[in-house]
Amino acid sequence: MYRFLLSRQWVILTLVALLLIPTMIRLGFWQMHRYEERSARNQLVADALNAKPVPVEKLTSPGHTVTTGQRYRTVTAVGHFDTDREVVVRRRVNADEEVGFHVLTPFVLTDGKVLLVNRGWIPADGPSQTAFPKVPAPPSGRITVTGRLMPDETTEASGIKNLKGLPDRQVMLINSEQEARRLDARVLGGYIAQTAPEPKGDTPELIGRPGDENAPLNYAYAIQWWLFAAGVPLGWVILARREARERAEAAAPDETETAPAPV
């Protein structure tokens, strides 16, 4: 009755099913690993955001590489903004996906070291983005700034090419080593995304808090792949039984031909 399973078509179908089952199981485990990784990153970000603010020099120094555990930590710094050596970072978008600039202003600490402060997003003056835009001035004099500590941007990590020959006072990446050479100063590693004091008139637009990665989606994908893996043998059995039934019905004699003729 099931001799058809030895046919070429069914042998190929069976082999494909046998390959799909472990593949889908492995994809489920891969999605579960992604869920665990994203959940761990979300927890790391939450811990950093909820930690008490500390002076910036407790976490970074000139030449320091900001670690994963230090990223998003709230830090404070006392000093003054140096707007004469301010630059803008090209091709940055705001929450509405509008393309403009990030404003990067050196902040000179009381001991002479420099902290890079990303003051937020501003629109471009026209479509060309070649002219230096109008940038609202920050508070003058000695102040305390607060922000989230961020690691240096690199092409490898961000995918942004560090183009050469840019218009005056424009850069592609926020990188403390690059800025240390430009400013000829001791620049703390990394930079901060300013959160306070808030700008007057809401310009520049402060950079929003980082959002959580959608870890539950990976969990759902893992369950989905495992359900698919369980469905493959079930589907194979259903197909095999249906074909066996159809073959049996086709082989059975036609009742209309075998029934005796009426007298």
Automatic annotation (TrEMBL):
Subcellular locations according to the entry: Cell membrane; Membrane
Stored Pfam families: SURF1 (PF02104)
Acetylation as UniProt keyword: no
Keyword Methyltransferase listed: no
Keywords: Cell membrane, Membrane, Transmembrane, Transmembrane helix
Membrane topology field: Multi-pass membrane protein
Primary location recorded for the protein, binned into one broad class: membrane
TM stretches of this protein: 219-239
GO cellular component annotations of the record: plasma membrane
InterPro entries: Surf1/Shy1, Surf1/Surf4
PANTHER family hit by this protein: SURFEIT LOCUS PROTEIN, SURFEIT LOCUS PROTEIN 1
Assigned protein family: Belongs to the SURF1 family.
Name this polypeptide is given: SURF1-like protein
